[in-house]
Specification:
The chain folds into three domains: about 45 residues, Orthogonal Bundle (434 Repressor (Amino-terminal Domain)), CATH 1.10.260; about 130 residues, Response regulator (Rossmann fold), CATH 3.40.50; about 130 residues, Response regulator (Rossmann fold), CATH 3.40.50.2300. With about 350 residues, the chain is of the alpha/beta class. About 40% of the residues lie in helices and about 15% in strands. The strands form two sheets. It has a six-stranded parallel sheet, sandwiched between helices. Helix 8 packs parallel to helix 9 and helix 10 crosses helix 11. About 40% of the residues are buried.
Length: about 350
């Protein structure tokens, strides 16, 4: 097998395979209208000659870089990476490559990534954004098909699709599960108010609490605003332990903060569910292997990733499509971290 060689042309491959240049082009571009025997001959010749496609030349010819940007809040979040994998699986079949960037929910870091991707003329963007660079995103959106993942843009000028879950209903169902068991002092580890997903989940929590006569306002003590990272979940429990009257249950608004909260509860020897019940609005990785398994709202990243990839491919074909929302319903997965409160 020879080393890959930029000087090898389609014609060289065609001569070696005994087919036309058009047939070689179809095989390389994954056109199904090629006889399997011819396809095999072309791939064998391509491999032996070390042919590879000149991406720059192809981009100039096709007016496309065949690159999709995926800007995520946290690439250590397994859920987000599962979504990214499903998107990649779909776009690879159309010869697109996925470039993944992590913002750590930092405004400046997100802007640098967006500017870099914009400068490289990406063909499409999947954005799990910080909510703090809306003006640049709107400018980029004028020519770049864009899919929002879990986090909305406030501006009506945005044209694209939202892939999300029914966040309010999910948080409502979890909170109601606790209130039905008799919990009234439910400590909420909420997300940053700048994110639509955090506000929607908080709204579901408030709705369920209101049904049992508990009004959630600025004076309500059982709340902590986290940042969707593990440390803020840990810090939330530290704050909770300073309260004069401890809550009987915790609802965490994302899985990463839940893990932080569980670590702090363990360090303080607070027993679950004997001393406190725990629920979470996101699935926790390897939940079935954990000794303490919070009740969670489960969303399938495979389903969401496929929908995001499909919506993006449709926009790459026709970005004049009106803005759409694809919302997925919540499903409760019961664990062993919930019980009736002692003082019920």
């Amino acid at each position: 097998m020879s080393k890959e060689n930029e000087s090898v042309t389609l014609r060289d491959v065609a001569v070696k395979a005994g087919v036309s240049v058009a047939t070689v082009s179809r095989v390389i571009n994954h056109d199904d209208r090629v006889n399997p025997k011819m396809r095999k001959a072309v791939l064998k010749a391509k491999d032996e000659l070390g042919y590879y496609q000149n991406v720059i030349a192809r981009s100039l010819k096709m007016n496309s870089t065949f690159t999709i940007g995926f800007v995520a809040s946290d690439i250590s979040n397994t859920y987000l990476m599962q979504v990214a994998k499903e998107i990649e699986n779909l776009i690879n079949a159309r010869q697109y490559s996925l470039v993944v960037c992590s913002t750590e929910d930092n405004k400046e870091q997100e802007l640098r990534h967006l500017q870099l991707l914009h400068g490289r003329n990406i063909d499409g963007l999947v954005l799990n954004g910080t909510g703090m660079n809306e003006q640049f995103i709107l400018e980029m959106n004028k020519r770049t098909p864009t899919i929002l993942l879990h986090r909305r843009l406030k501006s009506p000028e945005f044209v694209g699709d939202l892939i999300d879950t029914d966040n309010e209903q999910g948080a409502y169902l979890l909170t109601k599960h606790l209130t039905d068991l008799g919990h009234k002092r439910i400590f909420a580890i909420r997300g940053p108010t700048i994110h639509s997903i955090a506000m929607e989940r908080f709204a579901g929590y408030k709705r369920a609490m209101k049904e049992i006569g508990v009004e959630i306002n600025d004076k309500y003590p059982y709340m902590f605003e986290g940042d969707f990272f593990a440390k803020s979940g840990y810090d939330a429990v530290e704050y909770m332990c300073s309260l004069p009257l401890l809550p009987t249950a915790i609802i965490s608004f994302n899985s990463t903060m839940t893990v932080g909260a569980l670590k702090c509860l363990k360090s303080r020897n607070i027993n679950i569910p004997e001393d406190i019940s725990v629920v979470s609005t996101n699935y926790i990785e390897n939940l079935e292997l954990m000794t303490v398994r919070p009740t969670v709202i489960d969303y399938d990243p495979i389903v969401l990733g496929k929908q995001a990839g499909q919506a993006l491919l449709e926009r790459l074909e026709d970005n004049s499509i009106k803005s759409r929302e694809f919302l997925f319903n919540a499903k409760i997965m019961h664990g062993n971290a919930v019980s009736c409160p002692k003082d019920a």
